[in-house]
Write a structure and sequence with these properties.
15 strands, binds pyridoxal-5'-phosphate, Aspartate Aminotransferase, domain 1, globular, 11 helices, 376 residues, alpha/beta
């Protein structure tokens, strides 16, 4: 059997990882500024993380959600405390798309309505409702097309109000920072207006923090820069540092009936062990603070490079836009400079490293980038 062709593959085979580095099967070490697509939060193979999952596996790896699981309680407690949402309820699932799928379903149940407002350049995943509210017609099949959605320009509160007035809107879904769209930070004033308008017109505000959350932006959630409290927050990626886990944080004002949402694997023992280790390490090593500090340092260094057309993002989620395609530079960064970066669209390099990144590692990247740009 051959593999389904999902993404174009780079010709490297990572076999081990350590902190901000991965090593391939030839023994070559790469500085990982991509984090496996914003997934690695506390660093590769962190000993405490490895220990916690291994110990759990030795005891029990899985049982279904029909029994008490104290690890779920512990994770919910710690997430509530670190995120600033101790009063919210946590529903577990296994991925980002699934988190949004459940968020959208819950919003529709709660409001009894069926239209979703999303924004230009949004990416919310590839399952049915999540893909329907994603701004990429290429990956929306006729089956997904039955979801009623309205796509609006980001940051346009007037247009949002005009649609909310139609009264069939169950939810507005917006990324804390648009990741796939190119690290586009929503205007805080717009998020505040969206939050107020949703309340006024009886729609729910869902903030997708799957990529921008878990400390990456320099706050636990990126929407906290706007000081809003969404009705539902979706999380995944950095939550498990590579172990598949996702979830939605649900406002105490929503009262989903028991059994409205369900899952076999969500919140399993290993995933929870991973999730708890991530939060413990984040707290102990002050990783949210490091994302702010080191991200700010990197941003200021990058802003001195004249060839860069635009710099966007917050903390350790940075989009570097050029007025030329970046595929070649990304390849050179990887194969010549041994630095792994992400891209989005054709012209934007995306930096999504582990939150343990140091300023010295930022310097290595900036110097390599300047060297390559000066050769163009
Ligand atoms: C903002 C956002 N939402 C949802 C998803 C989907 O997550 P997953 O691939 O885990 O389903 C992604 C993935 O890149 C994302 O960036």
């Amino acid at each position: 059997m051959k593999l389904f062709d999902v993404y174009p593959l780079f010709d490297i085979v990572p076999v081990s990882g350590n902190g901000c580095y991965i090593t391939d099967d030839q023994g070559v070490e790469y500085l990982d500024l991509y984090g496996g697509h914003a997934v690695i939060s506390v660093g590769h193979s962190h000993p405490e993380y490895v220990g916690k999952i291994s110990d759990q596996l030795k005891r029990i790896g899985f049982y279904s959600n029909s029994v008490q699981n104290p690890l779920q309680e512990e994770l919910a407690l710690k997430l509530g405390e670190l995120s600033g949402y101790p009063d919210y309820a946590l529903f577990f699932c296994n991925s980002g798309a699934e988190a949004n799928e459940n968020a959208l379903k819950l919003a529709s149940f709660h409001t009894g309505k069926d239209r979703i407002v999303a924004f230009d350049k949004a990416f919310h995943g590839r399952t049915s409702a999540a893909v329907a509210v994603t701004d990429n017609p290429k990956i929306i099949s006729p089956l997904n097309d039955s979801v009623k959605r309205t796509l609006l320009p980001l940051n346009d509160a007037e247009k949002l109000e005009a649609v909310l007035k139609q009264s069939d809107v169950a939810a507005v879904i917006v990324e804390g920072i648009q990741g796939v769209g190119g690290c586009i930070v929503p205007d805080p004033a717009f998020l505040q207006a969206a939050s107020a308008l949703c309340k006024q017109y009886g729609a729910l505000l869902i903030v997708d923090e799957i990529q921008s959350g878990y400390g990456r932006s320099g706050k636990f959630f990126a929407h906290q820069y706007a000081a809003i409290r969404p009705d539902i927050i979706s999380v995944a990626k950095g939550m498990g540092n590579g172990f598949p886990i996702g979830g939605i944080l649900i406002s105490p004002e929503l009262k989903p009936w028991s059994g409205m949402l369900g899952t076999t694997f969500g919140g399993n023992y290993l995933a929870c062990a991973a999730g708890i280790a991530v939060l413990d390490i984040m707290k102990k090593e002050h990783l949210v603070e490091n994302a702010l500090e080191t991200g700010g340092y990197l941003f200021s260094k990058l802003s001195l490079i004249p060839q860069i057309k635009a710099l966007r993002g917050k903390g350790l989620m940075i989009g570097i836009e050029f007025d030329f395609p970046v595929a070649q530079i990304r390849k050179q960064l990887l194969f010549d400079e041994k630095i792994f970066t992400g891209v989005t669209g054709s012209n934007v390099i995306r930096v999504l490293p582990p939150l343990t990144l140091t300023k010295a590692q930022c310097d290595v990247f900036v110097n390599a980038l300047v060297k390559l740009l000066n050769k163009l």
